[in-house]
């Protein structure tokens, strides 16, 4: 890069550090300040922060790779996690359920649900441990992406690139807690949007895809193969039931129609589980229920800009190939086109924007991971009388430790798609299954939760460590089935949670599901109100899912300039928007602003 580009990147980093120092005093008053921003952060800041956290550089590189190979159909592979369809569920009901608990972490929530006795303590302990382990694995994923990014963009050794990003990110993560994380992410979000708008507008003004062209696909044993595709196939809105990709890392997507159904099922489970980590943290930090809804819809809207960006990057990659160049690894299409097709100055802006995407996700994970150590392990079980100063010190120390562990485990994965696939369809599902049971089945207890988490964690980790060569869907169903069996058996073989605890939870959270014996202990008029709310939520959820997917697809089709497809996507978006307004937003606007 030119010195001007490096100067832009340097200015960006200086602003980040400045924001962190500014919020240091607010964040270090107590752990509620450090991890939840005193529940005083505005909805627009939390929504923008969430967008920046989701728009990580590793995930964006994977999505760009899938879209480069498959076109618009690549979004359906993204349903496994990149689309973040879980936000539709959080928008309608699980977000407000989380906020009603008035807790700091999912692990602390376990004592709200299962009581403060042995089962609640066990569930909280294992929830915290599993969340920390997941944080370490997730950091491995982001480290891998950062290594590829720095190698391709700056010519830096991947290990050194990881260390650079980690050091800078840690500096402002440990200084200013969630205050710093959120407001630096707001700044980063602005920078990301400027980058996206520049790339998309440039592509729409200067590039029109030909009727036929080739893309490169990795094959088994290394290397790549160029395959020819057509514009009509590459821009079609609905996924093909089957594809014909060559044998190699991507041939699992040859059953794209079936894979889409798998991913949709997995996403529904994830959404129903209520999320965890940095996503749940933003809902715990919201001022009230109304702001939960507002931050959700703003989060989704901002995240929609990711999709025209990745398809624009894919279009640039195609033209790079048309000009006689080769992108052997689709996961490198993002940095390759950035470094070869962007002018001085704008190249620095784009690099700064992508660094923002990388670091925003990284620090969000680190901050939420540290909360589990301080709030749910150290203070809860080891040092209940720890002073605020000691707790803040542990918050910072825990941040450093999880980052180092994440760096050490990076070597276990061969590619971005490898680690992301396993995190979502293997390890992640072992945490989601007990997360689903906890909301909807009154009989499910803390022992069932603990058994499910331990089983899922050990089974999926053993599969990775012993290099058992299962395909994605076998891993998913085996992990989900074994975890569910462990949850049910442990629950039925141990006593039920105390009824007083369940009644308090039901009245405060107001969930739907199998709560018959608990409802019988609650005033019928109150139950009628809860059921009326539940019916509205269930009606609104399909509209929220359709609204989010149609918004993303509509935005994605725009840079292709295929106006017929865009018109169809727009009409579908209008339909789901109207449904979402009448079933959800109109009711949301009438909710009181007081905290539940």
Overview of the structural elements:
The protein is mainly alpha-helical and 596 residues long. It has one domain: Sodium/glucose cotransporter (Up-down Bundle). It has 24 helices and two strands. It has a two-stranded antiparallel sheet with strand order 1-2. Helix 8 packs across helix 17. The C terminus is likely disordered.
SSE inventory with pairings:
Elements: H1 3-27, H2 31-36, H3 43-54, H4 57-70, H5 74-77, H6 86-100, H7 106-114, H8 118-154, H9 158-206, E1 212-218, E2 224-230, H10 231-234, H11 256-273, H12 277-284, H13 289-303, H14 306-322, H15 333-341, H16 346-382, H17 388-408, H18 416-440, H19 446-465, H20 472-492, H21 499-509, H22 516-519, H23 524-557, H24 563-588
Antiparallel strand pairs: 1-2
Helix pairs in contact: 1-9, 1-16, 3-9, 3-12, 3-13, 3-16, 4-8, 4-14, 6-11, 6-13, 6-23, 7-8, 8-9, 8-15, 8-16, 8-17, 8-18, 8-19, 9-14, 9-16, 9-17, 11-18, 14-15, 14-23, 16-17, 18-19, 18-20, 19-20, 23-24
């Amino acid at each position: 890069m030119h010195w001007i580009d490096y100067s832009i990147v340097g200015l960006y980093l200086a602003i980040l550090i400045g924001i962190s120092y500014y919020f240091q005093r607010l964040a270090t008053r107590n752990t509620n300040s450090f991890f939840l921003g005193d529940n005083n952060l505005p909805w627009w800041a939390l929504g923008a922060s969430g967008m920046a956290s989701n728009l990580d550089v590793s995930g964006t590189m994977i999505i760009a790779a899938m879209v480069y190979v498959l076109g618009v159909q690549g979004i359906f592979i993204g349903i496994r996690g990149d689309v973040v369809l879980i936000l539709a569920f959080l928008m309608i009901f699980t977000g407000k359920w989380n906020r009603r608990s008035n807790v700091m972490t999912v692990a602390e929530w376990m004592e709200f649900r299962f009581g403060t006795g042995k089962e609640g303590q066990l569930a909280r302990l294992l929830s915290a441990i599993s969340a920390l382990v997941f944080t370490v694995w997730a950091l491995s994923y982001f480290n891998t992406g950062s290594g590829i990014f720095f190698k391709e963009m700056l010519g830096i050794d991947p290990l050194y690139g990881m260390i650079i990003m980690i050091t800078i990110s840690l500096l402002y993560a440990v200084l200013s807690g969630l205050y710093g994380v959120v407001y630096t992410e707001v700044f980063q979000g602005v920078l990301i949007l400027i980058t996206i708008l520049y790339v998309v507008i440039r592509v729409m003004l200067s590039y029109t895809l030909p009727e036929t062209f080739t893309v490169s696909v990795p094959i088994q044993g290394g290397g790549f193969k160029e395959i020819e595709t057509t514009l009509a196939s590459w821009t079609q809105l609905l996924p093909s039931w089957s594809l014909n990709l060559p044998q190699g890392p991507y041939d699992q997507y040859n059953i794209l129609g079936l894979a889409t159904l798998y991913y949709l099922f997995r996403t529904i489970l994830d959404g129903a589980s209520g999320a965890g980590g940095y996503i749940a943290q933003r809902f715990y930090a919201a001022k009230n229920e109304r702001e939960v809804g507002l931050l959700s819809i703003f989060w989704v809207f901002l995240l929609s800009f990711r999709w025209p960006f990745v398809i624009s990057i894919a279009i640039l990659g195609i033209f790079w190939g048309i000009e006689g160049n080769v992108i052997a690894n689709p996961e490198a299409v993002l940095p390759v086109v950035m470094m070869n097709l962007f002018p001085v100055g704008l190249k620095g802006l784009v690099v700064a924007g992508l660094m923002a995407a990388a670091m925003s996700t990284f620090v969000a994970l680190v901050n939420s991971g540290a909360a589990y150590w301080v709030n749910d392990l150290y203070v809860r079980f080891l040092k209940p009388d720890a002073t605020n100063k000691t707790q803040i010190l542990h918050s910072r120390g825990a941040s450093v430790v999880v980052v180092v562990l994440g760096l050490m485990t990076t070597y276990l994965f061969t590619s971005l798609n490898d680690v992301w696939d396993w995190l979502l369809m293997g390890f992640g599902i072992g945490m989601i299954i007990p997360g689903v049971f906890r909301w909807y089945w009154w009989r499910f207890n803390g022992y069932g939760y603990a058994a499910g988490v331990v089983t899922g964690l050990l089974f999926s980790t053993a599969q990775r460590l012993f290099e058992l060569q299962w395909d994605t869907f076998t891993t998913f169903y085996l992990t989900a089935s074994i975890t569910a069996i462990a949850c049910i058996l442990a629950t039925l073989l141990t006593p039920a949670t105390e009824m007083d605890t369940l009644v308090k939870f039901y009245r405060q959270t107001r969930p739907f599901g199998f709560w018959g014996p608990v409802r019988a202990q609650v005033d019928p008029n109150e139950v009628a109100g809860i059921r009326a709310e539940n019916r509205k939520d269930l009606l609104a959820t399909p509209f929220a899912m359709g609204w989010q997917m149609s918004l993303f697809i509509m935005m994605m089709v725009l840079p292709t300039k295929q106006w017929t497809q865009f018109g169809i996507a727009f009409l579908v978006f209008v339909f789901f928007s109207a449904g979402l307004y009448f079933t959800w937003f109109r009711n949301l606007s009438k909710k009181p602003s007081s905290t539940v």
